[in-house]
User: Fold this.
Amino acid sequence: MIHLFRTWNRCAARIRQAEQIALLFDFDGTLSPIASRPEIPRLSPSHRKMLQALSQDSQVAIGIISGRGLRDLRRRIGIRGLYYAGNHGLELEGPNLRFLHPAAAAARPVLVRIARELRKRLTGIFGVLVEDKTLSLSFHYRRVPRARHSTVQDIFMQTVSPYLKRGEIRVTRGKMVLEVRPAVQWDKGSAVKLIRREIERSRSPRKILLCYLGDDETDEAAFAALRANDLAVFVGGRKPSSAASYYLRDQKEVKEFLKRCRHLRTAMAA
Assistant:
């Protein structure tokens, strides 16, 4: 795994050679710092300015692929003309594209029951949060005292175990979060492939370059979905176990990446 800016000249050459570029990002931990509660993160004005400028380039497509619900994600980014994939790609909107996984929508009643049971069993435990995102649930325990982490995780698993055994759901892990999703084989990698197909269908480029930046375990599926000539960038420092070939340290370096991409595109248009 190489720091992206150490080999920037080579990456910049790939960006210049591409007829179409798709810059795809996770949100929490990538474009915005991880926060103690999910309602806190916002896109900074400087990040928004860079994304907005790049999105106006006809040869650049911007996509945000997040575990957040689609409506929540759109509200936090607030830029028109982007690809927005919520609930790890179970719902996706973009230019001439609208997708909702049918099996995920059908699982809604099961998720409602699980959310109700979790809240009942976790009553009185400080710091736990069950976030209902319509097509999935997020069980946050970042604010729970560390001594009680194993306790709340045990309660979570005891609650969801019957649904797992019946094959009604699947559970994934993130940073201080456990997620309940419908039992469908669909993830951020599926969303990446769907966005690629839409770009190929609508714009018919001969050379397309996808860049994906993410910081969490759920982003590994997106890294794995990229092709050999694409750019997979892990945000958060060097992580040898990641499927990404490159890394950036933090959101400041993500901003620098956006700045460099913008300068490249401006120079090419001159």
In short: Residues 2-101+186-269 form a domain with the Rossmann fold fold (CATH 3.40.50.1000). DSSP finds nine helices and 13 strands in the chain.
